Amino acid sequence: MTAMTAKATARKQKKTWSLWTERRLPSEYEAVTYKFHSHFRRAPAPFELSEGWSINQFYLKNREGSKFALDDWEGYRDPRAYTYRRYVEDQRDREVYCDNLIDEFERLDSYRKLSRPWLDFLGRHYLPVRFPGHAMQMSAAYVAQMAPAAFVTNTFYFQMGNEMRRVQRQAYLAKALALDNGRAELADSDAARGLWTQAPQWQGLRELIEKQLIAFDWGEAFVSRNLVVRPIFDHVFNAEIAGLAKANGDDLLSLLHDDFRNYDEAYAVENTKALVSYATGKVASHAGLLRDWIGKWAPLGERAARGLSEALATAPGADSAEALFQRTMAAQAKLVADCGL
Amino acid sequence: MPKLQRRDYYDTARDMNWAFSYVNEDEVFPEELSKSFGIKGDEWWGWDEPYKLTYREYVHNQAGKDDGIYSIRSTIARSNLYDNLDVGWKSAIKAHYGAIPVPEYFASIGEARMARFGRAAAWRNMATFGTLDECRHGQAQIYFPYCLLGKDPQFDWAHKAMHTNEWGVIAARSLFDDMFTANDAVSTAIQLTFTFETGFTNLQFLGMASDALHVGDIEFGALISSIQTDEARHSQQGEPTLRIMIQNGKKAEAQKLVDQMFWRSWKLFALLTGISMDYYTPLESRTMSFKEFMQDWICRQFMDQFKDLGMDLPWYWEKHFLPELDWVHHAYHLGVWFWRPTVWWNPDAGVSAAERDWLEQKYPGWNARFGKLWDVIADNVRAGRIGKTYPATLPIVCNCCHIPICSPSVGQAPRITSHNGRKLSFCCEVCEWVWKSQPERYDTHLSVVDRFLAGQIQPPNLEGALQYMGITPEVAGNDAEGYAWNRMASLAAE
After folding, report:
1. Over the stretch B237-283, which tens digit does the pLDDT of each residue have?
2. In whole angstroms, how large is the CA radius of gyration of chain A?
């Protein structure tokens, strides 16, 4: 009886979307992501308004009209196959981990044990990072809304959320450090804004970030963000800062950045590599296009990395600015090379 | 737990505004993507959301909510719950799934536009949550009908609809693209989050959830009420945006945005929710009539909040909106049933003797106005003249709401007018006003009838129209009950 029931079930063919074209059935991830951008390359205009309406024209120019084009973006897959549900589940676990970490260090009264020079360094050269961090969140939101398939868009939604995650933990630390050390300026937004907009070491990054925000071609926005800004920014503000923090007895900061690096940065890197590989696999000449865009943004990237390296070199026990700069640019170059570019 | 509470560090986590100097502010926030209404840079920085939330709370809450709805789904998948649902109710959820999940995902693009082009960091943070929310709503709401594909091919339209030019889809897409997919960030905050999500989504997501629980559709009820908890939060981006516009002397501009989108939303939701509540929901499960839901949730609750912020009622409130509450969705229902092969669900006539009594009680005068039209249909069905209950031609469609023009059913002539030499048809004065108040959004857009007349639909008959609309034989709608309502009505008459 049991065998017969099983047989009957097996015979009943599972149904899938009529628009799905492969022979195999889609996974749940594919069923809830496939062909959601019905407006991409829709004729006569992406959106159900006048063709001349400014946002139709904006998409026709910056999405449909981008040189970063190929026939089937619906074939792209997030290496982690994230649905919203799986993303929030994973990040809930990450955030519980961060809460536990902070709780553990707070029990040991760790903020008060940090040295004055380290706190001075954090105030000037680290805590204003929430401004560019927020801009990275904005730029992920941009690539997401312009990408030609939900398979690409959603990975940028999740990167956007991850940028916010890091910024909010940084804001938390700023406030906790300020309160426990009686140094209100560490959490003062006007003071941080002043440093971000005026202090010389931040200006290279600020120029890069501000200009990246107006790279409106979706392909160029992806390349400038994920192959120039991100690898430089993440190397400095995940890897190097974690090392310096550890050397200065700030294990909490070090461990938090390890978490951002191992999970969120890794997610961005996996998707950067996968998207480049997908695109160049479909259109080999895209490798040249992407290299050209990287080349165009490289001078601004180097200037940003130089300023940040000089800033980090002022931390107690830091390497020279030149060594920091070389490592930062090497990290960026490695990502580009890992993408096969 | 970390020792600092959200309130202790929240401001530090949301004040990331600065004045750009390597690029111009109007390059970072171009007018087409973020209409400033002449309000400059730091005037926006005081944007203050009423509902405060951090990322750690967000993922905690949302993962919990998803655990809830997906576990209900997998429990119900092992039951025969769906098979036992009322046929009219099944039509209501099919209409919902075709019109809502993918547009909700489109709303994630509108939210992402605010997350990038919103003019304050606090706002962009709220829109970041809003973006993720709408991604959730698209995915969860499409997964449920995906699991029902084996039960009925009409559920395929949850996924397919937005790829087609079905007339109701054009109406929905026209509204949603205007409101969020192709709207600027500031107008989106007023039109999507303030006008639409604090008003109309309550109807569909709480009103229909309440009906769902009475019908016994626990799955649909749990899904959409869970979604509404997100809407209730991210809809609150509208109020602070509105406050800044009012403080900067832009009340008239904000009022116009509300008036335009309130009307457009009303038309589509009269079509979607109006019919579902008053005709497709089984009589014994109706918690309130559509008009009562509208009066309670839109006319009273939403408008109270609206007036508290110093806004006025839309100019058309007394003359057009309140009178339409009595008739417009009844006319739409008649049209949808008549043109039933053009929709992806099976319209339930919903006019058995007992249902007609209910309609007359809730809408005095219904029998005289609409009942007599159903009498003609019923006579034709009884006499076996089914052919006469089908359309031979296409209706005239409104160039603004894209819904067939029904106003003659209450003695109002359609408004035939022109713009720069182009002939336009509108169902009413308000649709004409919405269109003419912003022709740059609509002036070259063709309604489905314009496309027919322009020769884009071939062959130029109903068959060609169905093909153009993407309707296939296994999906084309038919009477939900196989005309059983009519047999019951005739028995009652005898």
Report:
1. 999 999 999 999 999 999 999 999 999 999 999 999 999 999 999 99
2. 23
Task: Tell me if ipTM is over 0.90.
Answer: yes
Q: Is B396 helix (H, G, I), strand (E, B) or coil?
A: coil
Whichever domain contains A231, its CATH number is 1.10.620.20
B454 touches chain A (CB under 8 A): no
Task: Determine the pLDDT at residue B491.
Answer: 52
Domain with A210 in it: 83-338
Other CB atoms within a 10 A radius of the CB of residue A297 amount to: 22
- Look at B146 and A187 and tell me if their CB atoms are within 8 Å: no
Indicate which of A21, A29, A32, A127 best probes the interface with B, i.e. most B CBs within 10 Å of its own CB. A32
Q: State the greatest distance between any 2 C-alpha atoms of chain A, in Å, as a whole number.
A: 79
Bond before A44 cis per omega within 30 degrees: yes
Could you count the other beta carbons within 10 Å of the beta carbon of residue B385?
Answer: 11
Looking at the 3D structure of chain B, how many domains does it have?
Answer: 1
Separation between Cα atoms, residue B492 and residue B494, nearest integer Å = 5
Residues B426, B414 contacting (CB under 8 angstroms):
yes
Residues of A with Cβ-Cβ distance to B19 under 8 angstroms: 197
| Interchain CB distance below 8 Å, A157 and B135 | yes
Asked if the structure places residue A211 within a domain, the reply is yes
Give the type of residue at B203: L
Cα angle vertex B107, ends A168, B347, to 5°?
145
Assigned domain for B335 exists: yes
Query: A36 lies in a domain?
Result: no
Nearest Cα to Cα of residue B441 among A336, A167, A97, A45: A45
> Is residue A102 exposed (0-12), middle (13-18) or buried (19+ Cβ within 10 Å)?
buried
Structure tokens at A180: 């426990």
* Residue A7 located in a structural domain: no
Place of tokens 């022709």: B439
**Separation in Å, CA of B124 to nearest CA in chain A:** 8
B338 is a domain residue: yes
Phi (first) and psi of residue A197, to 5 degrees: -90, -15
Tell me the count of A-B CB pairs closer than 8 A: 236
- Most B-contacting residue of A53, A57, A63 (CB-CB within 10 A), to test interface: A53
Smallest Cβ–Cβ distance between B128 and the set A141, A172, A197 belongs to A141
Contact B184 A55 (CB under 8 A): yes
DSSP symbol at A44: S
Q: B156 to chain A: which residues are within 8 Å by CB?
A: 17-18
Q: Could A175 and B12 be called an inter-chain contact, meaning their C-beta atoms sit closer than 8 Å?
A: yes
Specify whether the CB–CB gap between A74 and A34 falls below 8 A: yes
Average pLDDT over residues A108-135: 98
Q: What stretches of B120-217 show up as alpha helix (H) in DSSP?
A: 121-147, 157-160, 167-176, 185-188, 201-202, 208-215
Establish if A9 belongs to a structural domain.
Answer: no
CA distance B65 to chain A (A): 10
B321 located within any domain:
yes
Instruction: Identify whether the C-beta of residue A315 lies closer than 8 Å to the C-beta of residue A121.
Output: yes
Question: Is residue A10 scored above 60 in pLDDT?
Answer: no
Residue B148 lies in a domain: yes
Residues 27..66 of B with a Cβ closer than 8 Å to A: which? Answer: 27-28, 32-33, 54-56, 58-60, 62-63, 66
- Say how far apart CA B62 and CA A95 lie, in whole Å: 13
State how many domains chain A has. 1
Cβ separation A55–B183 shorter than 8 A: yes
| Distance (Å) from the alpha carbon of B187 to chain A's nearest alpha carbon | 13
Q: Supply the CATH number for residue B248's domain.
A: 1.10.620.20
Q: What is B18-54 written as a DSSP string?
A: ---SSS-HHHHS-TTTS--TT--GGGGTT---SS---
Percent of chain B with pLDDT over 70: 99
Q: Which chain A residue has its CA at the smallest distance from B103's CA?
A: A36
C-beta separation of B109 from A132 below 8 A: no
